[in-house]
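[Solved] Which block belongs to which protein?

Original post:
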Amino acid sequence: MKRNFILLFIFLAIVLVLAVSTNKRNTQSPPILNSPSAAASDAISYCTPDQLESTVSTEGAAGSIYATLTMKNLSTKICQVYGNKIVAVSFAKSDSNVKVTPDSLSPHQFITLQPGDTIYSQIKYPNGPQCSRGVVQNVFTITYPISESDVVNFVSQDGNALLMQVCTNSDITDVLVWPFMGSPVTK
């Protein structure tokens, strides 16, 4: 009986140690999405481009390419970025037949980033010909305004230029853009 009590005590001690250590590993909170009425955002300074790592990675899927955008706070300080702006997609060659549409607009005026926090957005565009006539490869860039005075440029993780096939005639190439959020976009 005494042996069973000792074994039970040891088991409970191990469970307690595991619970505490697991809780410590998961203490980093997700980015804080602040609504337009959040006055606390006024006290937090804006992130600067050198505090952020802004990258884009692409993946093809069934007729579409998904570009995942990430913005990570590399600094040791809490900072914020605009949350309710639209990701800008610009082309090297002027193409009037490309239509960029926001999936939705974020209701969050600011996103507060703790050191190490990452926020996410996504762009969806056609993978291959969707035109009645010819297509051309066009280099494009992605930017996002993080404050009144600063914009970040998203850089491809592999260092290559970002390319999109766009129509050469009057057909429209549709590009869909999601707002930034605290977890990866899964649409």
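(Second protein starts here: sequence line, then its structure tokens.)
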Amino acid sequence: MTFYERAFRYIWRKRSQSILLLVCFFIISVIVLSATVILQSAQATNLSIQEKTGTKLVLHSETGITADTIAQIQGISSVSKINRTVSNTAFPVGFSPVIKKEGTDPLNMAVSLHAYDNIGMDAFIILFLIFVFWTKSRKHEMGILLSIGCRKISIIG
């Protein structure tokens, strides 16, 4: 008697255990395949969202970012644009800034300077969010004004 005949007879003798084992293997393989499909779908969705939203990477350096570094970053194929910002503190000479505190602390006399390279889209998004939050905060007020007959343009303007 060969080994496969013995295996077949063993499986035939213990039918219920063999069927239960086969069902367990089938369920486990379905779960593994489902997890693989879900993982691939999540990765594809993540890449799609990143492409559509234009995710940002912010680099901050205490010493500053050189022009060579910017050229290398622009050389990367997945980089669509670079928006450089610079912040610095200045101490004005000949005039004093408007401050809330009185005192002789030199930091009270400091002015923060901010420079932006390209803020067109960022400014649009910020203004859009401000408008959305403003309209949400005035939702009930606008409803009352509309119900008493005010025109929409007079409420928004």
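Accepted answer:
You had them paired correctly. Confirming on the second one: The chain is about 55% helix and 10% strand.
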